[in-house]
Amino acid sequence: MKNPRLAxxxxxxxxxxxxxxxxxxTLDNVDVYLSQAxxxxxxxxxxxxxxxxxxxxxxxxxxxxxxxxxxxYKGYYHTFVMAPATSNTVAKCVLGIADSLVTNLYSQxxxxxxxxxxYPCDIAPEMETTAxxxxxMVYPRPIDLEATAKLRTFSYTxxxxxxxxLIFAIKNAQPTEATLC
Length: 181
What we know:
CATH superfamily: Flavin prenyltransferase-like
Strand content: 15-25%
Oligomer: single chain
Structural class: alpha/beta
Order of helices and strands: EHEHHEEHHEEEHEH
Helix content: 25-40%
């Protein structure tokens, strides 16, 4: 493909989701993928799915085989972004479980050597995060922190620890001549 796009997946995490969406809305050439939980969380944060659909192609987790993942095999995407990512999604990615649209996207991106940028919700033993009512303190479990640490070791995966790092990583993700699997 001449001009590969960015694939951005939202999971059920509310971790700075409005900041992630504010940046997402500044971008062009993006396809948005939503897990079932993301649809619920977006409503909790007052985000109208219709507004996203007016701006981007939006794919929802409705089919068992996740047909859109085949776009990675056609060189359609230069980078896959998963932001914010739940601890559940991160754990599945670490274990190689690809049983949902989002985990399947991560799996196929890796198989096609398409770089992934992941912003996990669990990045430190004590941290501030966003909830629908405002900012709160959370204390991620050791197992969740271990999964995030393990994900950092994966090829073609960049784990970021803040919205600022996410923005920097995406801005530096260079669309290159996509490799066909």
